[in-house]
Amino acid sequence: MKITKLLVANRGEIALRIMRTAKEMGIATVAVYSDADRHAPHVRFADEAYHLGPAPSAESYLRMDKLISIAKSCGATAIHPGYGFLSENAEFSRLVTASGLIFVGPSPHSIQVMGSKIAAKQAVAKYNIPLVPGMETPITDVSVAKVRAAEIGYPVLIKASAGGGGKGMRVVTSEAEFDEQMTRAVNEAQASFGDAAVFIEKYISSPKHIEFQVVGDQHGNVIHLFERECSIQRRHQKVVEEAPSSCLTPEVRAAMGADAVGVAKACGYYGAGTVEFIVDDQLNYYFLEMNTRLQVEHPVTEEITGVDLVRMQIMVAEGQPLSVKQEDLAMRGHAIEIRVCAEDPANNFLPDIGRLNTYIRPQGPGIRVDDGLEQGMEISVFYDPMVAKLITYAATRQEAIDRMRRAIAEYQITGIQTTLGFCDFVMQHEAFVSGKFDTGFVAKYFSPEVLAPKPTTEQQEAAALLATMLQDVKTGAVTKSTAQFNGASNTTSAWKLRAK
User: Fold this and answer.
1) What value, to the nearest 5°, has the Cα angle with vertex 376 and ends 373 and 381?
2) Is the pLDDT of residue 109 over 60?
3) What is the pTM of this model?
4) Which of 51, 256, 303, 362 fits 410 for a cystine, CB–CB 3.0-4.6 Å?
5) Which of 234, 253, 293, 403 is catalytic?
């Protein structure tokens, strides 16, 4: 069935990203918005726009009934969920399809299976895909879990079965701390996802987080579009991504790609999705989870493959077979993405809100900015604090790094704290440049002090002169003429004289 009008059930940069491809395909676009987004760029860009409700997402972007009602009343033939919000909600996928609309995403079955880490592991085990040693069924009983943890061997990782984003996750290094950490993980899982179930697995120290982009059609074909390196994280959430990874050998890449395709086939997957792995320092890899949606970091894959993933999503949703085969795909060049977030790296990356008093994007060859904000707009407390995604592409990894540093320097944002300074710190750190880093990068190398402004040469010289003068005063060696430089009657300071 041909999609003629597409409602994007999302906001901000991802809504704009999807609408741009839809317009290129001759598809009419429909935006939805909350009170907070009434004047947002994605609303103005769309052919039509409809009000959802108040700013809180539970009263707007999470209203399944309202979204479907708007789509049907305006004559839309499909709904694209973007990422976040309802993108991985099996019930929403089912309701959209049941209402006679096309859901631009996977089936409810695939979402449900891969939405549960336990069910996902059980599904992929049939394909002999490497799994981290651990439990195969969820658990809430602390005493039973403690026994299993001892069998697996410390350190272990307790992880919520029904969620992500680092919630309900605890690393336990010894039996003495297990009870407390297990209780915390269970409580947080219940509070965050309404499901207290957790599972326990062996904790892989110094891991890399590497994911593979997959796309399947409704005819049983599945391909992968290579990997993304996502190990630079804070609070278990990504902040820097790149493609390809600097550490994989061609042999490991091929094996991981084949296993990523196997994961997709394990749940009859169609649409765009991401298979995530953790990789140890010996390049042993283990299946982590599957995200059944478009990823925030999908642009780096688009840059190195030349493939428009949103276009592929729409074509698959229409029932078309994949337009490319695995052997048609190749990696060219290197791409890096940073998430420009309204967060304060000097204050544990806490979200910041305020007005974008200055907002000037970088430009030039190999630079892409995906955003949904403009100068003068407010960063809302109701939604994710990401301001934009800044992507650079170049022939080599080092050139992409150099280009990113130039782009960061050009990006002018005032009115809020952002992660730009932190990302520049990452780009020039030896561990990142050499590729010898893992998910512990922030804990190992970052402290707020590294972002403190460095004194200029003049400031350093003035400080040295002042220190010398103070030492002279202390020892009584200061002369009358020197002392006069600091006198109230002297209008020219020693600092100014030194600068001359």
Assistant:
1) 65
2) yes
3) 0.84
4) 362
5) 293
